[in-house]
TrEMBL record:
Keyword annotations of the record: Membrane, Transmembrane, Transmembrane helix
Segments traversing the membrane: 77-96, 116-135, 170-188, 200-222, 271-288, 308-326, 416-433, 439-460
Designated gene of the protein: BnaA07g24940D
UniProt key word Transmembrane helix: yes
Protein name: (rape) hypothetical protein
Pfam families: DUF3537
Record has Lipoprotein as a keyword: no
């Protein structure tokens, strides 16, 4: 019992000492609270690595909102289309009715003006409808595919920001050029077309410039967004080409290339209606202009027909932005096969290739490898994956194929990879038609044939 009492007394004493130490440690709480804010001030915010890119995307989204592309709610959708109809259609038509004078056909042709207003409004309406639908459905980040490759976000962030800045500058440059051309034309017409009151001339001038600037900026902004999306994918393909110097696993290359092709298929699906309608509206507008100018019996000058030239500049710039971006990403996607072929040739001829080929008893060259086969998952989370049915029909990985994969030599795996790239080039497509040089040549000769047909119907040479 004495021993038990001693143990209890020792335990009680030890417990009292621990309590005394704990109370002494908690005595200066002020110093700890004073130092804590200093430590928090030195720590970076949790989203600092994405802060610059996030600010750039927010500024871009704010700019698109000012143009009416942000239609996330019913209120914003109704307000956007009311502003579009008011500034894009009601205002210019009203101004043309107010400023029309019967004795001024030499300096102002009402049918010419209405044709230009309708064509510009149709282009801007198609652009506003298609881009706002994609932004409302996917958001700015997924719309631009800046979050798809999260593992590369750190090293590609600067390239993203630079490309976004270049696209905005390109949009501002062409918008400024078109506005200056329109302003010069309207000022010249104001000097030649008289009005009873000076304020009416100023009102017509400002109203036409405002409506023209609004419609042209919407159309050019939509074309610039497609141009930006394609150029961001060019960054991904350039980064993919660099992987050949860093990685050696063929299954990894195929998986990354499958992801890139899936992104291109999504872009093609989201913008195919916009591209088709853009081509149709521009073609119809240009041929209507050709019919009107060739059938007009009077004299056409820069004063009464200058809007034809200005509208043609805007339309051609938008078409060139889209075609240039689509062909650029298509050619980059097709050039991956050439890069892989060069890499395959260098690796095959290199003496530093550590892979050794052994012969099996049956005489077939085999090589044991520890690299496990990789199965590529296909995401069906988006509705636009209906355009990728060929992916869904791919057979699932079978375990019986594992031995054949593991027995393939390094040379044969690289050869299979190059053959895969050659048979799956990728690129921007419009209902199955790849947008490349061949399609552009086809479009050019179709347009040329239509032009010669119209000229043959309207232009008549008489011999005296």
């Amino acid at each position: 019992m004495s021993i038990l009492n001693e143990i209890v007394s020792v335990a009680v004493g030890f417990y009292k000492r621990i309590q005394a130490l704990m109370s002494s440690d908690q005595s200066p709480p002020v110093a700890a609270t004073v130092e804590t804010p200093l430590l928090h001030q030195e720590q970076p915010p949790p989203d600092e690595e994405d802060d610059d890119l996030g600010q750039t995307l927010r500024r871009l989204e704010m700019f698109l909102t000012l143009l009416g592309f942000s239609q996330s709610s019913t209120r914003s959708l109704v307000l956007s289309w009311i502003v579009f109809l008011t500034i894009g259609l009601v205002l210019p038509v009203t101004v043309l009715e107010l400023g029309h004078c019967k004795g001024c056909e030499r300096y102002q042709n009402k049918s010419f003006e209405l044709n230009i207003v309708v064509s510009q409004a149709c282009l801007a309406g198609v652009s506003l409808l298609c881009v706002s639908h994609n932004l409302r459905k996917y958001g700015i980040r997924e719309f631009l595919f800046v979050d798809q490759l999260s593992g590369r976000m750190g090293r590609l962030k600067d390239h993203y920001m630079k490309q976004i800045s270049n696209s905005v500058k390109l949009l501002g440059l062409w918008s400024l050029i078109c506005v200056v051309l329109k302003a010069v034309r309207e000022i010249i017409r104001m000097l030649y077309v008289p009005h009873d009151q000076p304020w009416l001339s100023v009102f017509i001038l400002l109203s036409m410039i405002l409506s023209w600037t609004y419609l042209s900026t919407i159309f050019l902004a939509a074309s610039s967004m497609f141009h930006l999306v394609c150029n961001l994918q060019v960054i991904h393909f350039e980064d993919y080409a660099k992987l050949l110097d860093e990685e050696s696993e063929i299954s990894f290359f195929i998986g990354e290339h499958t992801n890139l092709r899936r992104y291109l298929s999504k872009i093609s699906h989201r913008f195919r209606i916009f591209l088709v309608l853009q081509f149709l509206v521009v073609t119809a507008s240009q041929f209507t202009t050709l019919f009107q100018t060739t059938a007009y019996s009077g004299r056409i000058t820069y004063i009464n027909g200058g809007d034809f030239a200005v509208s043609a500049v805007v339309q051609v710039v938008g078409i060139i932005l889209c075609l240039h971006a689509a062909t650029k990403i298509s050619h980059r996607a097709q050039a991956i096969a050439s890069v892989a072929s060069k890499w395959h040739a260098i690796m095959s001829c290199s003496s530093t290739d550590s892979t050794q080929i052994r012969a099996s008893p049956s005489g077939v060259h085999l090589e044991a490898t520890t690299n496990p086969p990789v199965s590529f998952r296909i995401s069906n989370s988006e509705s636009d994956m209906e355009s990728m049915d060929h992916y869904m029909r791919m057979p699932a990985c079978n375990n019986s194929h594992f031995p054949s994969y593991m027995s393939m030599s390094s040379y044969h795996r690289r050869q299979a990879f190059v053959l895969y790239l050659q048979m799956n080039p990728g690129g921007i497509t419009i209902f199955g038609w790849t947008v490349d040089r061949h399609l552009i040549n086809t479009i050019f000769f179709i347009e040329l044939s239509l032009v010669t047909f119209v000229l043959g119907r309207t232009v008549v040479f008489t011999s005296e």
